[in-house]
Amino acid sequence: MSPDYVAGNRLTLLRSGEQYFPALIAALDAAQREVFVETYIFADDVTGGLVAAALARAAVRGVQVHLLLDGFGARAFANHLRAMLEAAGAEVLVFRPKVSPWTMRRSRLRRMHRKIVCIDAAVAFVGGINVIDDQDTPGQLPPRYDYAVRIEGPLVTHARRAAARLWSTTTWASVGRRWPGFVELARRRLPRAPPDNVPLAGKCRAALVLRDTLRHRRDIEEAYLACIEAAQTEVVIANAYFFPGWRFRRALQAAAGRGVRVVLLLQSRVEYTLLHYASRALYRSLLEAGVEIHEYHRGFLHAKVAVFDSQVATVGSSNIDPFSFLMAKEANLFVADAGFAAELRASLGEALEHGARQVRIYRWRRLSWWLAIRIKLAYAAARLVMAIAGYGKG
């Protein structure tokens, strides 16, 4: 599936929270009519406080503020932040708030993992950055390595439509089983109608590709596969949690086999033990097919981006694993613009050169017996969890 590109956009690549949060807060402070914010995590830290304060200021000005949080990722959302926002007039909703730790039902993993912000149907942000300090990492390591994109132009309408639709469906789900006055409450929370059109703002062609459990179950994966299969010279993928299914692995191996340079920038540090070791069970077949694997060690890698032939790029929330590809609500921006792709490729090149180490096949063939056992056990456990949760090959 090729993404449905929209022309006439101005896109600004933002690297990590250092660039993202000042741009986000400035846009929130300029809001006049409405704000949608979707985030998986909203931390009670300096960054969370600054973003919450900007949302509250907008609400006090009369802006219709909608904050949508995930019930698992933001399960510890601070009561004082919620109280401040609601006192200012902001609306706060939680997507699937009831999370039981004692069930393996597949529905437990259906999370809202995407990160979309839309302001006045004029400016939008899409990427992989949660509302959390970059420095909030295990062991106080260097800042997380991540990306987002500021969007102006017609594509903002697509982002606004997606955010408003999810807000509305979550509203009905949250109030539909409550007291008899739920209709009035739902109407109050439902967003206003958007403007008819958004003027051209630049020359970039881009598409907002969503993943959900209904009509768009594999859209992000299919968009990735289409780009990999069309690549002629180079594929560079940076992804925090990498555990692809056989179709994705086969596409990477086929690209390397036809002479395309395929480069993976993956996580070096252990964040989630099971996934960390299970993913390494895939290394040998990829390395033997000619795929380059580089592990990022400078800090924690949280990026979900890729560049194809320095002509097409993607930035978003979707990892390359069963959770993102098969279960969670995700949003990725695909950009068909050589200038944007070259900028992201240069940034990834810097990370590859100064923050990563290449995994060599001759060393991987000589793993210690203890590490090999851990990898095999983790892979078997991961496959078992996937089977219990109802996954097929993906």
Spell out the blueprint of helices and strands.
Layout: E1 6-15, H1 16-29, E2 34-39, H2 46-60, E3 64-70, H3 79-88, E4 91-95, E5 115-119, E6 123-127, E7 147-152, H4 155-175, H5 182-189, E8 204-211, H6 219-230, E9 234-239, H7 246-257, E10 261-267, H8 273-279, H9 283-288, E11 292-296, E12 304-308, E13 312-316, H10 322-327, E14 330-336, H11 338-355, E15 356-358, H12 361-364, H13 369-388
Parallel strand pairs: 2-3, 3-4, 9-10, 10-11
Antiparallel strand pairs: 1-7, 1-8, 2-5, 5-6, 6-7, 8-14, 9-12, 11-15, 12-13, 13-14
Question: Can you tell me about this structure?
Answer:
The protein has helices spanning 16-29, 46-60, 79-88, 155-175, 182-189, 219-230, 246-257, 273-279, 283-288, 322-327, 338-355, 361-364, 369-388; strands spanning 6-15, 34-39, 64-70, 91-95, 115-119, 123-127, 147-152, 204-211, 234-239, 261-267, 292-296, 304-308, 312-316, 330-336, 356-358. It has 394 residues and is α+β, with helices and mostly antiparallel strands. Helix 2 packs parallel to helix 3 (79-88), helix 6 (219-230) packs parallel to helix 7 (246-257) and helix 8 crosses helix 13. It has two domains: 6-189, Endonuclease, Chain A; 212-388, Endonuclease Chain A (Endonuclease, Chain A), CATH 3.30.870. It starts with 5 loop residues before the first strand and ends in a 6-residue tail after the last helix. Helices cover 39% and strands 23% of the residues. The chain is built from 13 helices and 15 strands.
